[in-house]
Amino acid sequence: MGKIEWAMWANEQALASGLILLTGGIVGVAAQFRGWQFAAYAIAAGAFVCLLEYPRSKRAKGTSVERTGQYCFTVCVKSFGPLTRNYYVRAFLHAAICVPGGFMLATVLGCVCLGIASLIYLAAAIRGEHWEPILPKKEVTRKPTDTIKNPPQNPPPRPPPETRRKRVDDLEGAAYDNPIPVGE
Amino acid sequence: MGNWIINNGLTSFILVVWMGINIFLFAWYYQIYDLPDEYFYTRHILGSALAWARAPAAVLNFNCMLILLPVCRNLLSLLRGSFVCCGRTMRKQLDKNLSFHKLVAYMIALMTAVHMIAHLLNVEWYNNSRRGDYDGLSTALSNLEDSAPNFTYLNPIRTTDIDAQQTPTYFVFTSIAGLTGVIITLALILIITSSMEVIRRSYFEVFWYTHHLFVIFFIGLVIHGAGFIVRKQETTKPPHNFALCKDRYEEWGQIPECPVPQFSGGPAKTWWWVIGPMILYICERVLRFIRYMQAVTYRKIVMHPSKVLELQLMKNGFKMEVGQYVFLNCPAISQLEWHPFTMTSAPEEDFFGVHIRSAGDWTDKLIDIMQQLPEGSQGPKMGVDGPFGTASEDVFDYEVSMLVGAGIGVTPFASILKSIWYKFKISNPKLRTRKIYFYWICRETHAFEWFADLLQVLEREMEERGMADFLTYKLYLTGWDQGHATHVWLHSDEATDVVTGLKQKTHYGRPAWDKEFEQVRNENPASVVGTFLCGPAVLAKVLSKKCAKYSDVDPRKTKFYFNKENF
After folding, report:
1. From the CA of A162, how many Å to the nearest CA of chain B?
2. Which sequence ranges are marked TM in the entry (chain B) (predicted)?
3. Using a CB-CB distance cutoff of 8 angstroms, which residues of chain B are in contact with residue A27?
4. Residue B10 clears pLDDT 60, i.e. is over it
5. Among A89, B67, B479, B521, which is most buried by a count of CB atoms within 10 Å?
6. For residues A60 and A134, what is the distance between their CA atoms, to the nearest angstrom?
7. Whole-number Å distance between alpha carbons of A34 and B164
């Protein structure tokens, strides 16, 4: 199992946890459960986690598959610089976010799932992974003036006309070495 | 349209039946809890959340029963073998087993969500009722004593000592149903997140090992219903008529017509549903283990260029058909991993062979081990499970066949072409093919030089028999660049192709299908042409359109049939 980028699985798990936290929070608030304030927190926390985790990271090796429409999220997440790039930060952030979810039944599952995601992110961070934004490749604009080289000013060096004429009687003597090498 | 019905009709029918059963179960169990009198008092506290929790539970029972079946591949092979009478369309359904497994998994996930939300409401409302937040009847019901030996209470939340906000959590984690529910839901979530396509395609091991949490899932599922938590009213002597007595809860037990109502819960019933498939799955794993223990000998080990390993193996009692695949396991590399490979040998040969390309950890290690073996010695112990997959015997039924292999999809055609050639040589009456057009499309020929070798051998043999036009093949390199083109242009006068060494010249870019179909039609008037593809779905769409376009209604002219194969 050598080549796994744990962050990829952590990302899926964290996104799922965000959704579960969000759902649990909505149920808690809509049905006015005891401790609905924790549910309200869970809605905010779940939404935040979803927004943070939606843009996939660029893989260190291999092709990265974007989620639909993730470009704007990528730009937002990228703007936080090292806070979002570093997975240690993410691991501790998720661990901190999930704690209040444990105080109410509706959000307990989201709390545990996010805790697991936090552990997987910790594993990813220990292995040295970090978040890279997937950005569209910039067009390499080639200046046309660079590629069009000046045509040669001088004709190629040739031996005098007598030697150039085809001497069918003496083919051996007719051969000559080109002073400048021809080819790639 | 007709083509769609032939290719997809049975699948759609099966899906409709499955969905129908789901809907029926949901509706049936919903009304079992929402209408009858024995749940009247339960509904007084819980409302329709009771029915909303029990209905998805029934759908979950049904789907958890189904989910193990599509992954019993040996059982499916058995079914496939016994369906020889029932037509190929039926047998092809068995090839879509993984799609069905995923569909059932999505339904399980959806129903788990509904079930869980409904139970959140149930627990919360039971807690509130116990605390006296609701009307007098509700409080009276919740206060009913738990008197042995019959456990006559209604509200499963018995304590009021714990902080009111934490009581639901406490209740869930101290009851069998609650605890198992949380554990198996967690297992389900981990299984689902590690099964996402991104993870599956990149790190199969994470997917495969995490998937084994299903063992915990099923054990928890079977225990989940224990605890008698969902309770209904029992008939008492004298009977307790709720219509009469619901407003006189203060007098229960004191007046003759309203004795204290008695409640009881039902036993766990899930195991009725899942025990069968669980046993079948255990048999399946045992069978895989037995197969793994069977001796497999190496007939030949060949290292091809571009890190392609060919293994020719022999196993007692092994019988294959064209286009099938096997699972290989090499304990020296990994005890638990089984990897699928399409077989590239023909059934007429006395061995079965696979070509293994370097495509990841496992294959790389295997190639390493083989490269370090001394000449002529046996390879490492190998377990073989299979063969699996619906054989593509239809290929032999058409007078003219157009075979299109794209990229790695060319592998099953090695088996097919070899088999066609063997059948042709011995004039096997099953073979009705008189002409084959083979289109090989790939980005570059690296890792497929072995296939070019096969074509060379076939080319030579056909020339010797004067049958040079039995097989027409065209190779399309879609990944060419200027360097390629220059190289080819310099060597364009030679008789054999500079890239493959074959007599047929390599084409560059994608095939112009209109031209190809025109050519086939012109060369074979009044024939039935079968088109077979192993490649991307986009190409399948293109080809099926061309088949429709170039087919003639007139039976005296050429007709094209597109067969959607999923090797």
Report:
1. 32
2. 12-31, 51-72, 100-121, 170-194, 206-230, 271-290
3. 117, 120-121
4. yes
5. B67
6. 11
7. 8
Residue B128 contacts A where some CB pair is shorter than 8 Å: yes
Q: Closest Cα partner for B474 from B510, B512, B439, B445?
A: B439
Q: Where are the beta strands (DSSP E) in chain A?
A: none
Distance CA B180, CA B350 (A): 52
Choose the mutation target among A1, A6, A9 for the interface with B, i.e. most B CBs under 10 Å. Answer: A9
Mutate to test the interface with A, among B179, B189, B334, B486 (most CBs of A within 10 A): B189
Give the pLDDT confidence score for residue B277 in this predicted structure: 95
- Name the phi and psi angles at B480, rounded to 5: -90, 155
**Residue partners of B188: CB distance under 8 A and separation at least 6:** B108, B109, B112, B217
How many Cβ contacts (< 8 angstroms) between chains A and B? 84
Burial grade of B391 (CB within 10 A; 0-12, 13-18, 19 or more): middle
Rounded alpha-carbon distances, angstroms, from residue B189 to A19, A20, A55, B206? 12, 10, 20, 14
pLDDT digits (tens, 9 = 90+) for B285-314: 998 888 888 889 999 898 887 788 899 999
- Return the H-helix or E-strand segment holding A6: helix A6-30
Report chain B's terminal Cα–Cα distance, integer Å: 24
Over its C-alpha atoms, chain A yields an Rg (Å, rounded) of 32
Report which residue type is found at B552.
Answer: D
Average pLDDT over residues B343-349: 90
> B384: which strand partners?
B328
Contact: B169, A105; criterion CB under 8 Å: yes
CA dihedral B176, B180, B181, B184 (to 10 degrees): -170
| Token reading at B453 | 């070798």
Which chain A residues contact residue B128 at CB under 8 A?
A: 34
Which residue in chain A has the smallest CA separation from B208? A1
Q: Residue B76: pLDDT above 60?
A: yes
Local structure of residue A67 (DSSP, 8 states): P
- By residue count, chain A amounts to 184
A112, two tokens = 């545990």
How far is residue A139 CA from its own chain's centroid?
18
Residues of chain A contacting residue B206, judged by C-beta atoms under 8 Å apart: 1, 4, 9
Q: Which of B165, B210, B490 to mutate to test the interface with A (most CBs of A within 10 A)?
A: B165
pTM for the model? 0.79
Peptide bond into A159 cis (omega under 30): no
Per residue in B436-445, pLDDT (tens digit) is 888 888 877 6
Element (H, E) at B339: strand B339-342
Give A9 to chain B, closest Cα distance, Å.
6
The first and second tokens of residue B326, run together, are 């096997």
Whether cis (ω within 30° of 0) applies to the bond prior to B374 is no
**A20 vs B164: CB contact, 8 Å cut-off?**
no
ipTM over 0.90: no
Quote the CA–CA distance of B324 and B326 in Å, as a whole number: 7
Q: How far is CA B487 from the centre of its chain?
A: 45
Q: Which two tokens stand for residue B78?
A: 């058995």
H or E stretch at B324:
none
